[in-house]
């Protein structure tokens, strides 16, 4: 059954629908065209069923808190893990070592000192905050994240002086929302800076984690990140490169899971006020905060009404705030009426898990997983 067929048959709203079969196929196809290792950034969507669908097709999972760490380890006992994110507590660092995290992405000299004080073996990537060109990025990951060259060198020295810590490489997640050519350009700048740096600091079998942030275009959902071009453009480890070249790893979240989730709900009311027509939908952006946080119209289809005759309507939820808007002045079938069913697409990442569920205490959505488990 296709996701469309499934959603047309739904009777209870609102509901999240996840297409696990499509997700497996999508991630496997990305894995097939990539040289670097592929980790999934769990913060995009840590739903256990999503994690279990993605896991066989990636090399590991990146977690960004003690909560994610415990959750992912419980869901995927065998997965290779990397632990990143700012402001790690002593308890979280110890938990990472207890739960067998393979790489810790250290964000600051103070964090490194606290990790060293645990007196336990740890394998480290230092997170670099590099001033590199990231034109066209939706989000610049500069500011508090990672370290400048001075702090990086201080950390490298401290690691050399520590009997338990091993420097394995550099981590650089510098931007979000770049297309493949821009992402490749950024990757080359990172590699050109990091390879000599790693050589200078005598890092054996060095690794470079290039981060995530591969673009997802909510305005034109069919416009996908060109994984083939990205995979072909990146240098492959050991292939005609100097011995100093590094093993590459990436850790996207959004571009892996965004496309295989939908928030499906029905129309409760259609009304015109001061010349503007609104469709009030069951639920609201407390279940799907993405359009509000990103400032876009969430892509959607009206699954119950295929009429080609359209008119502009603003799609809102049941919250008592003018900010509760899924999409503003968008064309919908002119005959849209209460009972019609709307499926918001691209709700598989940074959707349910970033939303403020309890606001106004409306019922939570049901969750459905399309899963034949073929792949
Ligand atoms: C959020 C995050 C990612 C994933 O970013 P996407 O935009 O979802 O691909 C990867 N690495 C780090 C360090 C992050 O903070």
From TrEMBL:
Residue stretches making up the Orn/DAP/Arg decarboxylase 2 N-terminal domain: 23-258
Q: What is the lineage of its organism?
A: Bacteria, Bacillati, Actinomycetota, Actinomycetes, Streptosporangiales
Question: What is this protein identified as?
Answer: Type III PLP-dependent enzyme
Entry keywords, A to Z:
Pyridoxal phosphate
Q: Name one Pfam family in it.
A: Orn_DAP_Arg_deC
The UniProt family comment states: Belongs to the Orn/Lys/Arg decarboxylase class-II family.
- Stored InterPro entries: Ala_racemase/Decarboxylase_C, De-COase2_C, De-COase2_N, Orn/DAP/Arg_de-COase, Orn_de-COase, PLP-binding_barrel
Give the protein's cofactors.
Answer: pyridoxal 5'-phosphate
What SUPFAM superfamilies does the record tag this protein with? Alanine racemase C-terminal domain-like (SSF50621), PLP-binding barrel (SSF51419)
Orn/DAP/Arg decarboxylase 2 C-terminal domain span:
16-348
NADP: present as a keyword of the record? Answer: no
Q: Which organism is it from?
A: Actinomadura adrarensis
